[in-house]
Amino acid sequence: MRKSIIMALMAAAVLPVAAQAQSNAELRHDRRDVRQEQRELQDARRYGSQRDVREERRDVRDARQELREDRRDRDRRWGRDDWRGWRDRNPNFYARGNWNAPFRYTPFRAGLRIAPTYYGSRYVIADPWRYRLPAAGWGRTWVRHYNDVVLVDTRRGIVIDVIRGFYH
Fold first, then answer.
1. What pLDDT score was predicted for residue 45?
2. Which of 30, 59, 77, 79 could anchor a disulfide with 67, C-beta 3.0 to 4.6 Å?
3. How far apart are CA 54 and CA 41, in angstroms?
């Protein structure tokens, strides 16, 4: 029994690495496809008809789209709802507590420009990994706004993402 548990844990630890290797190989393959399609487009421009050029442009466009999609899949380290299961298992982290802002609740939406008072240091979530939120990135920060969590571009004051009802 003990050996089977250890083997299961080892397999679980190795599985993400194998998935990552597969996605990197897939990206290499897609980049190779894009280069090949670009070479074929050049040949069509030199030696082919207008119809051949049109078809090759379409093939290059499709190969680039496939590369973009695979890159997006690879870079998607965090899904939007990765925190939900963690919140259900650890409700104390997400308890609303005695938290009040000196301003009224405003239902923000992505693309809205907000005042710096809304994303001041008092409201910044300093440890988003604790709540299983995705990394904010440079020039961005996660901010608590009542029960919501808002991702704000701190340079321009633009709301990038809103997760409503994050805190209980």
1. 93
2. 30
3. 9
Q: Which domain holds residue 152?
A: 82-163
Entry pTM: 0.51
Average pLDDT over residues 53-77: 84
Q: What is the CATH number of the domain that holds 95?
A: 3.10.450.160
CA distance 93 to 83: 11
H helix or E strand, kind and range, residue 162? strand 158-163
Please state the rounded mean pLDDT for residues 108-132: 86
Same domain, 63 and 96: no
Looking only at the bridges linking them, the beta strands covering 140-145 and 158-163 are unpaired
Q: Which regions of 85-155 does DSSP assign to beta strands (E)? A: 140-145, 148-153
pLDDT of residue 19: 46
Residue 168 lies in a domain: no
